[in-house]
Design the sequence.
């Protein structure tokens, strides 16, 4: 059961648990904790609740591990921090069980994940007052949160406290520090840290270099990033697939596509790991330049290498087939069930079929989306509005958007721009304001003096203002 739990195979854990009960083998608290942890990790909270009820019926008393799993459920997996505190301050107290370092560290991890850094500091102070000694797992999430928000000074202070407390820094902590410094563009300090790593008692791993390399790439320092490959080699480290993907993305962002292609091509000779993401990165770049032939060649090479395409791979391929005018072939990839189409897939195909004025296929795609319960997003809506306006039906576009807004849809600037442009081209704009979404019976008066209906866009002070209604009040 524990092995299946570590492999995230929850159903297998449950199968063994039920088999155990049917075999008249009474489970103990360790068995229950294993199943409970598995269910919590998989966020199957209703089943976890039922399991707790069965523990009570069997008169099994929860131990510290049980409570720690519950704290994990409420703080790390569901952001129900009030319930997490209730477990610690009520249930544990009533059961005569004292919180340990794992209890508090788990709560701190959840708080930091939820962006509640000050509260996490409060829990750390409580640990110190209650003489529950914090360890590396207590400090790590706080450091990660601080450096993630570029609070470099605060992070340095906490590292100083850790050292005074007698908590040695490990590679994970140094990697968090490198990430924070890179986000702050303090690359010189990172370089010094890596050069002095042996003298200060830590050994960088491939993750350390990947973080540093990624930071350099984001500011366009391509040659410096590639220079780290030699440094890694001297440290006895080989580039991982993450390393290769960082460099490929860096070259593509710098429009050095031929160099990226050569790097990918030489990966086998260099014995570097490449994966699906590696091919997706280069294929996506070729797709953005509409070089569909290069994309299809890479796709074929990827399959030949035995790599499994994912949804992103197929979306890139479908986009390129649409660029090449092979719309029906592109659609056949989802009809044949080669992969599970997502919203991006449908958006690509709907846009392509709209452009080719094949409304029959567009309607079929919308039906497929309904069957698969895939909701439209802003892009899908904007594409439809744009094409309705191009087809000479701006009023239908207005009605369509209004109906969606009544159901809670929020348009963005691009959506409004597409509608405004379509209405303007067909002479539907009024002087000062225009009816873009539809009218309701109630009226208010705009600052320009005209009566304005809810659901209209109004031109006021050189800006288009959206009018909506909420509980009888008009919102501008």
Sequence:
């Amino acid at each position: 059961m524990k092995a299946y739990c570590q492999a995230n195979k929850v159903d297998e854990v449950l199968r063994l648990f039920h088999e155990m009960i049917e075999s008249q083998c009474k489970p103990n608290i360790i068995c229950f904790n294993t199943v409970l942890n598995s269910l919590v990790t998989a966020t199957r909270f209703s089943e976890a609740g039922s399991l707790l009820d069965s523990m009570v019926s069997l008169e099994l008393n929860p131990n510290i591990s049980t409570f720690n799993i519950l704290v994990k459920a409420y703080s790390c997996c569901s952001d129900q921090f009030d319930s997490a505190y209730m477990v610690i301050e009520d249930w544990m107290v009533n059961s005569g069980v004292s919180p340990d370092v794992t209890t508090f560290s788990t709560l701190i991890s959840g708080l930091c994940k939820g962006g509640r850094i000050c509260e996490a500091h409060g829990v750390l102070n409580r640990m110190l007052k209650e003489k529950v000694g914090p360890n590396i797992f207590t400090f790590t999430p706080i450091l990660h949160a601080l450096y993630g928000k570029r609070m470099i000074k605060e992070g340095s202070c906490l590292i100083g406290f850790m050292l005074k407390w007698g908590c040695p820094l490990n590679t994970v902590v140094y990697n968090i520090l490198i990430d924070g410094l890179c986000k702050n563009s303090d690359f010189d300090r990172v370089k010094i840290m890596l050069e002095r790593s042996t003298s200060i008692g830590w050994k960088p791993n491939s993750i350390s270099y990947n973080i540093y390399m990624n930071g350099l790439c984001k500011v366009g320092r391509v040659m410096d990033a590639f220079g780290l490959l030699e440094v890694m080699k001297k440290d006895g480290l080989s580039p991982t697939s993450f390393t290769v993907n960082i460099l490929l993305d860096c070259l593509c962002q710098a429009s050095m596509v031929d160099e990226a292609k050569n790097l990918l091509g030489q990966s086998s000779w260099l014995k570097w790991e490449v994966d699906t993401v590696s091919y997706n990165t280069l294929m996506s770049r070729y797709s953005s330049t509409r070089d569909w032939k290069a994309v299809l060649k890479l796709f074929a090479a990827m399959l030949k290498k035995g790599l499994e395409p994912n949804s992103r791979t197929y979306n890139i391929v479908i986009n390129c087939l649409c660029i090449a005018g092979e719309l029906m072939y592109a659609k056949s990839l989802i009809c044949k069930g080669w992969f599970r189409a997502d919203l991006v897939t449908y958006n690509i195909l709907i846009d392509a079929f709209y452009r080719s004025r094949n409304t029959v296929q567009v309607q079929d795609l919308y039906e497929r989306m309904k069957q698969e319960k895939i909701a439209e997003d802003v892009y899908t809506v904007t594409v439809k509005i744009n094409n309705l306006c191009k087809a000479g039906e701006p009023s239908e576009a207005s009605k369509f958007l209004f109906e969606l807004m009544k159901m809670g849809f929020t348009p963005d600037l691009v959506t409004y721009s597409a509608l405004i442009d379509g209405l303007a081209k067909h002479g539907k704009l009024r002087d000062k304001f225009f009816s873009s979404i539809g009218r309701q019976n109630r009226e208010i008066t705009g600052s320009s003096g005209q009566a304005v209906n809810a659901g209209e866009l109004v031109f006021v002070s050189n800006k288009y203002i959206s009018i909506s209604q909420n509980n009888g009040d008009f919102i501008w």
Remarks:
- The first helix runs from residue 2 to 6.
- Strands lie at 433-434, 443-445, 451-453, 457-460, 463-466, 468-470, 473-475.
- The two ends are 57 Å apart (CA to CA).
- The mean pLDDT is 85.
